[in-house]
User: Fold Cystathionine beta-lyase from Paenibacillus hodogayensis.
Amino acid sequence: MNKDAALTVAPNDWDWTGFLQNGSDIGVSAWMEETELRDRSGDVAELRWLLRGIRDRLALYRDAFPDHRFERELEAAFARQAYGLEERAQGYEGRPETCDWDAYLTLKYEIRLLYKQLGAIVAGSDWQSPCKTWGGPDTDFAEEVGFVQEEQGTYERGYGSEAVKAYEEASLDAFYPMSGQTRERSVRFLTTSGMKALELALVAYKSTTREALPFYIQEGFYGEGIELTNTLLNDPLELDVAGLYAKVEANAPVGGLLVDPGVCWPVRPAVDLARLFEGLSRHRQEQPLYVIVDRTLTSVANPLFAKYADRLPSHVVLVSVESGIKHMQYGFDLANAGFLVATGRALEAAERREQWVTLLALLDAGADPVAVRQLPAPDLQRVIARLSRLNRNACWMDAFLGHAVREEKVSVYFRSVDPSPDYKLDGREWIGPLFYIQFPGYRSVAQYQSWIDSFVVSAPAEEHFVSGGSFGFDTFRMNVVSDADGTEAALRVSVGRDPFVRMLSKLRYMYGRM
Assistant:
């Protein structure tokens, strides 16, 4: 069997005209059925894995309250609920063909509810400034016994939670590969959001450099990021990517760069990280140069620390910021979170790294322990499996939109990540799940929103079309995007993880409504 049977026919070689105009018969062939069945088997495997995480949460709760009758009864109630969900998942395991998209989403969202509830209950009794008492000889106590608990001698707002630190280390080890040398001169944080990670990066830059040299924002960086940068820094300048390359390659004085290898709306050229870091490897100056990369759109397909960190000159500090809710929560959309990783020779000294910890506490940027308790365990291979299917569906969406342009159903469309050998996932170039689409005759936000509302209301329930923002989830989502003054609008689509035949069904339905 091929690793991806859907590649038996490449998306651009598919007979789109025949498929889209063939009435209600989708014409499922043997290789399509094989791909669909393997997708459903993968969904069942994900459900079983997520339920094992519920068992771990139940064990944690049970150990925290070994002698409390109310908590033990509550744990037993949750265990009964988990057992019922496990029975349903086990039934699908023997017959994965019965786990259609509706059944998968229904069971998964019941599992999601358990993660939310158990995480909140486990963390609900935590003290914000917990301590350990030493009044007796017995120090072998349960994790939660009122005045004495697992979180010892910490101040949770000040980066004290042991639960946060443990999850932080596990997730950053999984999602941000780097050499041992790079790791020794790095700081790595789980933050309350991706925007808070960016705020921490900008404040660290500002406090370290005193803004002695110019700071440049890539033209086309997302609007909230530009607003935050303009709020925190003195006179940052926007430059297109050609201007950024020119500054670096001419060895011009640069204090900082804020860049994104993905594409936001309104569309402007994305930065070519390979070219940028090639120029930075030859750049020389005495003052520090901070390069802040938003990795959200390229995610784990972009191992920038493994590729670039060890090549950087001593004055360059490489910082990655990323939303932790888009691709890293297995489609659960459980809790706001973000990631920040920074490295450079300027961080070799422990006191320099400690300055970042101090800023994290001052900005109250560390992740909330309640949120961390609700998150499934970080698992790179699980994330890659999810994103690989997202990417496959995105490749079919890409070919579909190309056909729609030729048919004049669509005026123009843009991917969120341009195909490049620099961003690969599971052997395939990563193009991201987002698309920006403009229809003939559509200009305003109101026009696109009206189209979305009508589309979602009339769509069959089993198709699971969603009117809503964000991306990286299981469902196919649509929302309107526009420039700052609302004059340049578009439909933004985030493809989901639909099994292959279901995805083709969605594309056919969408074509009929264009």
